[in-house]
Design goal:
Length: 187
């Protein structure tokens, strides 16, 4: 893997500074009480620079959306030989979702998103896009038609796991049970 150059590192640092500043302000004041200008000033950049990195306020909250989508697809396409798609997605969810549930700001972040209609709507659109992309990747990998309903159903089930396990006493156990169901079916 090639090391990113100075320009790419600077862009990534600016993007992170903007997302971090936005989240800090949103959690402190509430989403609707924070302007684009407030975020740009907190990150010490212009609003023009902010819009070069993010299309709007909602995208600042879901700043890792594109990376997550790419990693989901990579979990399918780059899995070990002989490993099932469901098992690869299980590993992905266990490695990425469970650490999020223990982050110190997890509860605040979840409350921010669920308590803000604009963020809920943006999250739903993002979720729908991720499900379509993952479903298409599963279909391509299995040789199924691009719109194969089983491939898209699997994608949607996997992407629903965070919502299904949110706030449960043992998320790891719940994730494992859900994937057992996906792997073996209802018993």
């Amino acid at each position: 893997m090639e090391t990113p150059g100075r320009r790419e590192r600077k862009k990534a640092a600016t993007r992170k500074a903007l997302a971090d500043a936005a989240l800090k302000l949103f959690l402190a004041r509430g989403y609707d009480q924070v302007s684009i200008r407030d975020i740009a000033e907190a990150a010490d950049v212009s609003t023009t620079t902010l819009f070069k990195h993010f299309p709007g306020k909602e995208a600042l909250v879901f700043d890792e959306s594109q990376d997550r989508e790419e990693r989901l697809v990579a979990a399918v396409r780059e899995r070990e030989k002989g490993q099932s798609i469901v098992e690869a997605l299980r590993e992905y969810v266990l490695a990425t979702w469970l650490p999020i549930t223990t982050h110190p700001q997890y509860a605040e972040f979840t409350a921010l998103v669920t308590g803000t209609p604009a963020l809920q709507e943006y999250g739903e659109r993002m979720w729908t896009r991720h499900a379509a992309t993952l479903g298409a990747a599963i279909a391509e990998d299995t040789g199924a038609d691009e719109d194969d309903i089983a491939c898209h159903a699997l994608a949607r089930f996997v992407l629903d796991i965070p919502a299904l396990t949110r706030g449960r006493p043992d998320p790891r156990e719940d994730v494992e049970r859900i994937f057992d169901l996906l792997e073996r079916g209802w018993r």
